Known about the structure:
CATH architecture: 3-Layer(aba) Sandwich
Order of helices and strands: HEEEHEHEEHHHEHEEH
Largest sheet: 6 strands, mixed
Number of strands: 9
CATH class: Alpha Beta
CATH topology: Rossmann fold
Number of domains: 1
Distance between the termini: 123 Å
Strand content: 5-15%
Amino acid sequence: MTEVSLEALLEAGCHFGHQVSRQNSKARDYIFGERDGIHIIDLEKTKEGLEDAAKFIKSVASRNGNLLVVGTKRQADAVLKEEKARLGIDSFSDPERGLYFVTKRWIGGTLTNFQEVSKNYRKLKDLKKRLKDDDEKAKYTKKEVGDWDKDRQKLESFYGGAADLTAVPDALFIIDTHLEHTAVDEARKMNVAAVGITDTNTDPTMVEYPIPANDDAVGSLKLIISYILDAWVEGRKEAASNAIKEKEAAEKAKVKAEKEAEVAAEKVAKAAAKVSAAAEKKSVRQVEDAPRSTQDEEKAPAKKTAKKAAPKA
């Protein structure tokens, strides 16, 4: 993960805050000063916050988690379209990489009432499936099919990539925490860690990983969004690499275990062979000794009989 420079942040316009009159008192620690009635954000704090947030995002991605990106403001929507194109994402989400986007509107209950909201997700998926099935569409009139498409578009505009979620996401990346205060509140209630761009009119303590920066300038948004998404992609690559290493380690362990089992089996076989050989030798000796003992027993009575039969002198 590359290190972001203060020069890059300055050129992107990340240092421009809101008017002094709109300041949130809890944002004072991130304010460097003011100029012409506009607050200037401390870029050292911006750099620190951005890098900490990127490390967290990367760690979630490396564990194969899911990230929901929330950016419904006009400037963010344009930047997110460019970033999705750069990453090769042509829809509202990329489930393979665990990336989901909400760019039109945050629906209340997306996190706190996930079970109920997910019913609309299933309805949207069903509509998409029916619209792709020519045989299904042939059973209905053009007007009915047209109504399906209108409902699909409406639901997609409401939920966006969130409709592809199968569970509450592991993290949120909120582009304007002041505008998306409902998403911030829901994340806090559901204990979902949130990364957020916090301008001078915002309470930075509402998110776990605040990035104090200009949340209106396109240049500022582009730099921060691309940096966070690159951290996510890097974390996913790390997860894939770790999975390959774990698979290779498991295969090596399996081969090693099989070899150890073969060696143990050979030792057992050798020990069994020795026992068998010893038993065979013992059996042979018993067979060889048996005739001798029988002859001795036969000779003993004969000697006794001969002594009895012998005449007395």
